[in-house]
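Risk register update: the risk of archive-format incompatibility is retired. Evidence:
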Amino acid sequence: MSQIGHELVVVGGGAAGMMAAITAARLGADVCLVERNPKLGRKLYITGKGRCNVTNHCTPEEALAATPRNGKFLYSAMNKTPPAEVERFFTELGVKLKVERGNRVFPASDRSADIIDALFFELRRLSVPIIQGRVSRLCAEGGAVRAVELSQDGGERKELPCRGVVLATGGASYPATGSTGDGYELARSVGHSVVPPRPSLVPLEAEEAFCGEMQGLALKNVILRMKDRKGKVLFQEQGELLFTHFGLSGPLILSASAHLRDFEKNAYRAVIDLKPALDEEKLDARLLRELGDNANKDMQNVMGSLVPRLMVPVALRLADIPPDRKAHDVTRGERRRLLETLKGLTVRIKGPRPIAEAIVTSGGIKVGEIDPRTMQSKRLPGLFFAGELIDVDAYTGGFNLQIAWATGRAAGEGAAAFLAEP
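Archived output:
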């Protein structure tokens, strides 16, 4: 088994890993970066629909408030590397940024490749070697990290002697990008506990079959309220959602899914206001007008001016109105049910889609086993964690990448300081 050595091995060439490697190298550490894909940042390429929602233009406090899972753990890292610092970091690397709705920050070019290229060329400037391969084992001796075992194509194995390791392998979402959960097993092998990974920012499966009838229908400017079994509103926002063959997807649903934390013990339902610009009184007046103007038409033909075509039979069925009912024959009770359907189309949620379809993973290395200032393991000196591998996750809007940058920098600084100790 051949050997080549570096002081610090960063495992994972995503956002957190590249930030950790850059940070440590800038502080003088001898760093190499191991990535199993031929190119760095594969998951970054697809974030923000290929535009890369770099961070959120907000305060550290607001970023922490948008992190429902173990946000307090991130207090030190987030205050040391707040969103403003992330924006400055990329601006200094030559990437022009812009702020859009919801304070989402994107490259001005709308190209995620600009973010990845900036990180890659900084790694090159710092002479950080990039090794393609998969770390299959952490080698610990005398209570400290001594090496990692690297498996490469063709079955060749190499041992990389080192004094420190940063694990930034990502979670278990989007496995095609390389996030296959390897980091969990590596951490377990040296005594770490792993909170079972679950999907977050993920489409949702529905009990109702009518979602499949409306497959492909996108609704814009609707209000989604996600309620629990007791009727408590867990999430409310206006925006866009999509009906699919299995249930619901789209930006609103992905955001709402982060609030649904206990499918085993709770029951959730999505309540969609299709006419948020009209209160009930105004909508009722609109319905009366439509019925009066189209008195001799079948309701299946009248409904086209109220809802999209694919929704017409569904809305009539939910309101219990026969499609061939003449408009002038619609009763007050039927009109009321139609109004309630338009203001509160309800979909019972069966559960989330598989973790492979999630944008981020909830769960991971227990935060109680990690020093929140340095991201160093409390179980094994010289081992550091960064990014989605840790049991933290946030809402959509650039907050999860903000966590990656902040924990990546903290891990890089922590590792460099550890290596500088005599």
